[in-house]
Amino acid sequence: MTGTASGRRWGWNADRMAKSFIRADRYVPVEYAQFTLHDYAAGDEEQPPLNEDQSIGVGHRSLRVMSLAHTHEADVAVEVWDEEPLAPAMPVVEQVSVTLRSGILIVAGLTGGPADHPIPVGNPGVYAVRVCREVLFDGRPPEGVHENLERYLIQLWRIAEEAAARTIVVCRPDRGVMWLAVPGYEGQLPDAPPADEAFRVFGRGGAVAIGAEAGHEVVVSIEVVDVETIGGDGTFLGYGELLIGEERAVVLLRGKYVPVDGSVVPVPEAGRYGVRGWRKRTTADRYQLRMWRLGK
User: What is the spatial distance between Cα 293 and Cα 177, in angstroms, rounded to a whole number?
Assistant: First the structure.
């Protein structure tokens, strides 16, 4: 399961492995430069979107890992930890989060079945997933089917559950922008993102601008969570920061200093908060804004 020899092989601190309680090694068929990780109970409709320009495609209960080589057998080690481990020496590709309702993980090729037996990771819940990759070829990857082109280390650990505060409101943004700000904010509002960066979270300080379609009604979910979670519902928009003082709350503005009714969301304490945004087109245009305390 674990050991010093294995730690030397993969290049991380073996002393830290004492806290990992599951390790599984898999040889995974990489097809079309991708392989997947998904919840044992996830259906086909819950597979993540195809993101050719991203390292990790995130679905609600699954991940699509983008490889640097088209077709090959990848050596994948999966570790489950009881808390966040130190980052290994192997380069980190990305860190995201995924919901595992079954508590069982499947590692599989894009079109085929699982690479091997399912991996039990623990209780159902939201897990952080850190994907690390070691490239074993020089220059461009060789054509055809090969082995030993890449090694992956995938580390999982359970993180805090969903939002401590969550508010959903309907908003009609004015002039292609809405803002997340503290109640009664009277400072300068950030401008809308430029046209080539439409639908982006933008800003630092007392307010964050979120690009949106002018005059178009949208549904906005505002969440306050205990810890940062990377994955969200829809296309990732970007990152901003808010400095919250004694008011200990945020509010959504649909125009210059015009709040959206019912959108005041309390936060547990004053301080600087990170903000991430996602947008999902369904029958209604939906935005998810998630906040967490920085520097705790």
Answer: 24
